[in-house]
Amino acid sequence: ARAHMDSHCISTLSVVLSGERRWRVGPVPRMPKGAGRSKDGEVFFDDGVAYKLGWEPMFEFTVREGEAVLFPPGWIHETLNTADGCTVALTTQFNLPTPVRYYRSYYGRLRRVGDLHSCWREMRLWGSLGNPKRKLPQEDAALRKHAEEAFDEKAGKLSRHEVEFFDVDGDGTVGRSEFVDTFLAWAATEAAVKKEKPLRVLKPDMGLEVPKDVRTDEL
Fold first, then answer.
1. Confidence of residue 210 (pLDDT cuts 50, 70, 90)
2. Cα→Cα distances 167→126, 147, 159, 182, 183, Å
3. Whole-number pLDDT of residue 53
4. What would the pLDDT profile of 118-163 be if each residue is shown by its tens digit?
5. Buried b / exposed e across 24-45, counting CB within 10 Å, b at 16+?
6. 25-73, pLDDT tens digit by residue?
7. For residues 185-211, b (16+ Cβ closer than 10 Å) or e, as one string?
8. Does residue 124 sit in helix, strand or coil?
């Protein structure tokens, strides 16, 4: 299969039952300021589009009989059967565990690529504590106060997925400062997404090097 991005919100597992298959995979590309955002429901990384943008995989490997590969939503992937005879593989997706921490880590990318449009609602629900349509304060001080009040109100009542979204240090709990900082970063990311112009042809950064001007106040 030529390089493409799947449009589902769950992780993929592919097991080779016989033969062997070469995989080339890489994360959802970085979306710098001005790169645009997809229109709702519009797939961008369809079959072969990544090649035209200069895509290079992060990992390249061969999966042999009895082996498997697991990757999260949004990863661009390419496969080629390399055995002398036929290759038989079973590929499936599964709902659990929901990759909430992955969505937080790649939030700014996934929220702008239309291939993952079906995931946007749930992503926004986690970050907004179930109320993505609530209008947030525009001033920094007011927004921070809103986040602090939201934590005080929801402390001990966060859903499992909300805990996973805000538990940045991975200790299984969400502290007040941890929640506030993540909420502010989530709100800044959503604001940045809305400022991007909806485009049919996005302008992602396909490089694997981390640029020097990465925004640290966004997810």
1. confident
2. 12, 15, 12, 9, 11
3. 95
4. 999 999 999 999 999 889 999 999 999 999 999 999 988 999 999 9
5. bbbbbbbbeeebbbbeeeebbb
6. 999 999 999 999 998 888 999 988 999 999 999 999 999 999 999 999 9
7. bbbbbbebbeebeebeebebeeeeeee
8. helix
Could you tell me which of 74, 116, 72 has the C-alpha nearest to residue 98?
72
SS (H, E, C) 71-95: ECCCCEEEEEECCCCCCEEEEEEEC
3-state secondary structure of 21: strand
Q: Strand (E) positions, 137-210?
A: 198-199
Tell me: pLDDT of 205 over 80. Answer: yes
- DSSP code of 138? S
Q: Positive or negative, the Cα torsion across 163, 168, 170, 176?
A: negative
Total residues found in the chain within this entry: 219
Predicted TM-score of the model (pTM)? 0.91
For residue 97, say if its preceding peptide bond is cis, omega within 30 degrees of 0.
yes
What is the Cα–Cα distance from 85 to 190, expressed in whole angstroms?
Answer: 49
Joined together, the tokens standing for residue 66 give: 């009895």
Rounded distance between C-alpha atoms, residue 66 and residue 71, angstroms: 17
Torsion on CA atoms 124, 125, 130, 136, rounded to nearest 10: -10
